[in-house]
């Protein structure tokens, strides 16, 4: 259920008056959510006022329309992610904005165009970036869907399309089936003619995932690999998608057919995964990893644009739609994070 937002929700009268004064005087400052050290979001995040940046030659200024809270944001704020920003850093990795101002010499884009908000920190009202680095967003994609389109859906597409040669009717298994990647996998797999088993931790998630198109939904810890033939009609599982680790990942390895592949792209729990010697030897299973950030760097802009085009085509044709749980204003960041960490089915968005 979307949370209604107001002009100055819970900000305090003095802050509201300050912002109204800024609007009246031509807006010279903006809000940002920053951290000056790595640590828990509740301890290190601060809502700060910064000057609105001006685009230099060859640059554009982008105004935030909507950002989201991604699981990788917690790693970046906490200092454990694969790549970190220099401190102080604006938090947030994913969001959509509109081109707001053009720097000298820019004629390749018009103001108002929807683009990916600069990746240097999405939890702020404005940012500048080189016009040549813009990732344009299909104008037919709703803002809320565009805001969550840059990390999880392309990750899901690559997991299904870039690692194992899957054919129509093949079975895959994934954990965290109710996550944004999980819901993307379910819907994309259905569009590709693939069959899915989705692992979840809560029974109340079974029916919603079936409604999104999942073929089978199983509960973690239910010994579901022993019922695999019943679940798939005897067909082997060729691909396992792991973003949790621990016993959940071990169950997937048990379920893989001969020569099957498990792809790890996240680790929600810190539990160790036992080295699956028996399955490596006798079933020839393969364990690999995937990181969308690395794909973008190693494969280049053309490959990224190709993936994003497939994502937006599915969104445009109604084959992919991610649920939005709630929307908060930037100053409500702590409330938004608390909501994001609670049991839910959908993304939490941030707006200016």
From TrEMBL:
SUPFAM superfamilies: GroES-like (SSF50129), NAD(P)-binding Rossmann-fold domains (SSF51735). The keyword Cell division does not apply. The keyword Lipid metabolism applies. PROSITE patterns: ASP_PROT_RETROV (PS50175). InterPro entries: ADH-like_C, ADH-like_N, ER, GroES-like_sf, Mito_Enoyl-ACP_Reductase, NAD(P)-bd_dom_sf, Peptidase_A2_cat. Residues 206-246 form the Peptidase A2 domain. This is enoyl-[acyl-carrier-protein] reductase.
């Amino acid at each position: 259920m979307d949370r209604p937002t107001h002009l100055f929700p819970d900000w305090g009268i003095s802050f509201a008056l300050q912002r109204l004064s800024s609007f009246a005087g031509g807006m010279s400052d903006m809000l940002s959510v920053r951290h000056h050290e790595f640590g828990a979001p509740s301890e290190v995040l601060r809502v700060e006022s910064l000057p609105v940046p001006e685009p230099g030659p060859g640059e554009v200024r982008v105004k935030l329309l909507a950002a989201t809270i991604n699981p990788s944001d917690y790693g970046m704020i906490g200092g454990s992610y694969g790549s970190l920003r220099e401190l102080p850093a604006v938090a947030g990795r994913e969001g959509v904005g509109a081109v707001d101002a053009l720097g000298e010499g820019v004629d390749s884009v018009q103001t108002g165009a929807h683009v990916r908000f600069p990746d240097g920190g999405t939890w702020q009202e404005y940012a500048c970036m080189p016009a040549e680095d813009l990732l344009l967003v299909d104008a037919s994609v709703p803002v809320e869907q565009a805001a969550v389109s840059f990390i999880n859906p392309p990750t899901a597409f690559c997991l299904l399309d870039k690692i194992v040669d899957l054919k129509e009717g093949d079975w895959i298994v994934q954990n965290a089936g109710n996550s944004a990647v999980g819901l993307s996998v379910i819907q994309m797999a259905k569009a590709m003619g693939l069959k899915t088993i989705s692992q979840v931790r809560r029974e109340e998630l079974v029916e919603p995932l079936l409604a999104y198109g999942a073929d089978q939904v199983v509960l973690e810890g239910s010994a579901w690999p022993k019922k695999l033939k019943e679940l798939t009609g005897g067909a082997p599982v060729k691909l396992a998608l792991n973003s949790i680790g621990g016993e959940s990942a071990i169950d997937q390895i048990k379920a893989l057919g001969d020569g099957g592949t498990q792809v790890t792209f996240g680790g929600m729990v810190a539990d160790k995964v036992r080295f699956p010697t028996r399955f490596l030897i006798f079933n020839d299973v393969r364990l690999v990893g995937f990181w969308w950030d690395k794909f973008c760097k190693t494969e280049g802009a053309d490959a990224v644009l190709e993936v994003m085009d497939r994502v937006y085509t599915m969104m445009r044709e109604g084959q992919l739609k991610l649920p939005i749980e709630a929307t908060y204003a930037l100053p409500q960041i702590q409330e938004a994070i608390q909501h994001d960490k609670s049991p839910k089915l959908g993304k939490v968005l941030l707006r200016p």
